[in-house]
């Protein structure tokens, strides 16, 4: 069974062959830590968590390195630090903001069922690597110094006679198209409009470090160079997979690819580039102006993380995703059913059909169809079928708790007093035993008004038993 992954660069889905099967290496762009992450960031975290799990399943947990970076130097961070901590030295305020926001992000994606990456490097801890790459680019003629800035020249890259790809190969755009489609900073010191900043002088009070390439004033890195440096430090000059949202293809990933390939005279930065599609809310683009901009934290207040996870995995990662309240409601009902059937099952291996679906470019939409069949087999079968169903769900990041804990979480979130419900059910059973059906119906109505649905049945010995759940 071959693992195939779609490569944005080649537009093909060849068999995945790692550079080193003993250390499969992947990098995904993480958050800029200045505020709560939005639900679109959550989709990217879930997609690459599934990939991480699939790679661990195929190659072994100890043979996969997953790097997800933290961008902790950015103008938005500086603005929030000055706003939230007036009177505190800016660098100290920035650290407070980034520490707080970093932890918020960790808590949120953990609630979504995401495993911790192997390494989560911070940009500010990799300034030496950034300077080293910049020095290589200047020495190779791919970058130049102008008015205390260092700028990368896509034109110089495209004129180089080497194995390196042309600038624009990832996004499939010409230089003219990139100028038209980008927010180009017009500056007199630029040689060409497409040139982008690798390093710039810091303003008074901003974070600053010793500059590369003989620049005497202190400065700070441009956005794109950060990921090139962190990937190089932790994964090497070339690695297996680079991931992120489709919005990062241009300019961020295009520029990363250019910087790294030119610095190390390589034809590739990553062997496979993977990008998840856009996320919409109720069929509209997520936007603060439309009032439909949601953070992960806001949605977690209404739904368990696994509900959000399932809502997103029903759609193939490369396709646009329309997140709706209805989809979350359906996911919640599905998870209630899955937990009741499989959460307490032990042992088992994921279904081959499930693995085959995920090996086909993380085809989670097909995986959902497989899960439907596994669920039916588990509901009518024995321990083997339940074990296979449970293992398949866990491969996707579900069943993080036992069945009783899942049910109890729902009951607790509803505010329903479980002890009171149990007392009323006992009173109803007593009324039925004495054939007081009027009282029995009254208690049922009372439970229904409380938001409780009851179901009468029999236990394995044939004795009457009543179960309940939050309606």
Automatic annotation (TrEMBL):
Catalytic activity, per the record?
Answer: tRNA(Cys) + L-cysteine + ATP = L-cysteinyl-tRNA(Cys) + AMP + diphosphate
E.C. designation(s): 6.1.1.16
Q: Which residues form a coiled coil?
A: none
Q: Does the keyword ATP-binding apply?
A: yes
- One GO MF term, please? zinc ion binding
Position of motif 'HIGH' region?
31-41
Family label: Belongs to the class-I aminoacyl-tRNA synthetase family.
Q: How is this protein named in the record?
A: Cysteine--tRNA ligase
Q: What is the gene name?
A: cysS
